[in-house]
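protien #1 (seq + structre)
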Amino acid sequence: MNAILKMSPNPWVVVAVCCLSLFMVSMDVTVVNVALPTIGRALHTGVSGLQWMIDAYTLALASFLILAGSAADRFGRRRVFQIGLALFTAGSLLCSLAPSVEWLIVFRLVQGLGGAMLNPVALSIITNTVTEPKARARAIGVWGAVVGLSMALGPIVGGTLTQAVGWRSIFWINAPVGILAIILSAVFITESKGDHARRLDPAGQSLVIVTLASLLYGLIEAPARGWTSPLTVSLFLLAAAAVVGLIVYESKRTEPLIDVRFFKSLPFVFAAIAAVVAFMSFSSFLFLNSLYLQSVLGLSPFVSGLMLLPAAVAIAVCSPVSGYIVSKLGTKIPLAAAGSAITLSALFLLMRTSSDPYWLMALAFVLFGAGIGLVNAPITNSAVSGMPRARAGAAAAITSTSRQIGTSLGVALSGTIIASVASSQRTVQLLEGSPILWWVVGAGGVALVALGLMVQSVWAKKSAERVAHLLD
């Protein structure tokens, strides 16, 4: 056994172990969405409870992604990676045992905290293990393909397990995968740390959590408590004050959690905005269609999973295509194409009725999936455009956080719009709330087109050059 632990790891085995964690975390998104109506009925909760069940996970993920990267550089990448695997696995098992929606929300927070320690740390392990440039590019390509594969399998796996075994089984499947990944990481991944580990920033981290938690709480609870109620107004004011405090505090730190100088680079700003908009649209799409297919059309979880499959397949196909286009032509074309596809899909979904043939809905799903598949590569490329190599990882981490913020806001916005405009019957809520939401998603697509047209402009490139000089 000692001989095994001391052997030099094959880089591609390390890549496979890291991708195993990515597969587990990524599939959890689409698996859970398909089971939403069943969970709502089983735990006797409405739309707001389902919103919190999704957003508790993404809130923890968004809040701790950057901290996890810093902790891995300081305390060891393998150590933090294994802690993340243990937390995610334990959180999954606890979710399967949750006696109420309140406990399920708490356990989803545990899952999210573990997830925050997996993806950025695993990618850091890969980039430090696979050092040859062409091999590293292939490894990152495999990483991206795993995201598409896991999202494509998610609806089928989630629908099948929910219908055949029950909703709790969608959390069981993480346990064997997580345990296997913990064992393999102990055998094949060598410990490594950053050359210069940044100091931890508890005050900055606290301000990030306050900002996101108060904003989401206000959005989700406002329809029930009133938009002008003292609690709602106080929450939004608290979120605004936390943002101001974060900017002021971080700008004075030598090693901040979030380097506010990044936001002087317009390509970086455009990338962060695009990440929020795109993933707000994506989470709205998943949340609303999962409820629509089962609560309005009366489909089973398994059939609903099949119906969502065209979107997931389009994501898997278009993600590597987008990376190729970015490498050859830059970020403008894929970002503008992504926005156009999302807007066109939103228009189809805006006009759909429950009597439409499925091929029309499938076309809308393919367009939406293509848009999401095309958007990732230009976002990442724009975020690190012109950044010094030593700061590219930190810039990419903030963009990853922006994706999770967008996901959280999309779920919060979806339920809020439905609850604000509709009656108490769930099917009527979905039918009456959907048009407004698809207008919002379509506007997000238009915004992505505009960002795509601006991101490679002369004045944007000059701002990136100024920031690069400032950071150097």
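ok now protien #2
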Amino acid sequence: MKTTGDHQLVKQLNRSVLLRLLRMHPGLSRAQLAHSSGLTKSTVSLLVRELIDEKWLCDHDATSATGLGRPSTPVYIDANCRVLMGLEIAVAVLRLVGVNLLGAVLWSEEETLTSHEPDDVCRQAATMIGRACTRIQTNHLTLTGMGVGVPGAFNEATGNISFAANLGWWNISFQSKFTTAWTQAGLPPIPVHIQNEADTAALSEYEFGEVQATQSSLIYVTCDEGVGAGIILNDRLFTGRLGMAGEVGHSTLQLGGALCSCGRRGCAETFFGRKALDRLPDPSLGGHYLAMVLHNLWTSFDPYAFVLGGPSCERYPRIVAVAQTALQDYAQQAGMSAPPVRTARYGLWAPAVGAAALVLHHQLRPLHRDRTHRNKSDRTTAHIGDPNR
């Protein structure tokens, strides 16, 4: 006999199937959704009505004929009612955005960090979020969830940041501190997800770009004070056992090389991190080392595409062109074709927009979310409030 939990999970799965279909193919009718999903027409009709009532979907009055019989009504993702909020904690600033379900930026705000102490950072972030919540309420919008991108290795199982070298953070119980600041600020109970900022930047491209229809993998490399990679494989973020996957800035490019902020020597960050680029007579030379890292990522993960972003790519755009050319040279030497390399569509705001996309990423993958919850000892720190709201 099926339990209530089984029924709820099946329902969540079916809802996510419909939402994902409409994100890739907007304007499908209920009959087309039933055909594409394999669900019965009655199930689709009930779920679509529920999703419309909850402001996930909308149907237009305009109808389109599909041969003989009653015309069908197209169904779309509702871009006008729900807001996803994303916060990036960078080395020097906080960036906060609100986006709709299709990834359009509704508003953005940036503040200089007043302190690098973790508790102070969380309190400053909570104050920013409080102002945004007031704006959302005033505009009669529904806040669906919150995502946070942090500049370090984040362990989802413990809620800790193992290290964020450029902030001087080591083994910080960040999730607990953020939850405390949230509660003290009197912020509303909503799902809150936390992840490394390179991972969230990757999601800005994957969830709101044009890759999902045909691709299931992408690697985003962010170049700033530090260097990191967000890796998406088989439609999932690949974060590793301790959340350290993608810390390519601390991969070794030279034995016994220059001292890195992490305490090791010869890390990639010492060749094309911001400080290294600022010291070079021609910063574009850093693009050759970036290409070396891209080449290693390509041979390790074989992604469909690379996306490059971060302040260094904005400040020194030539490093992107040099990296593209050098990567193609590596590929030609082996008689192969390298994955395409392009720049971030959201620019400097990619980690914040991607943090908002993190909410959607979890919502559309209930099986993954269910497994994640069961593996956590304290679920309340993963979601502040009801995770299914």
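The radius of gyration is 22 Å.
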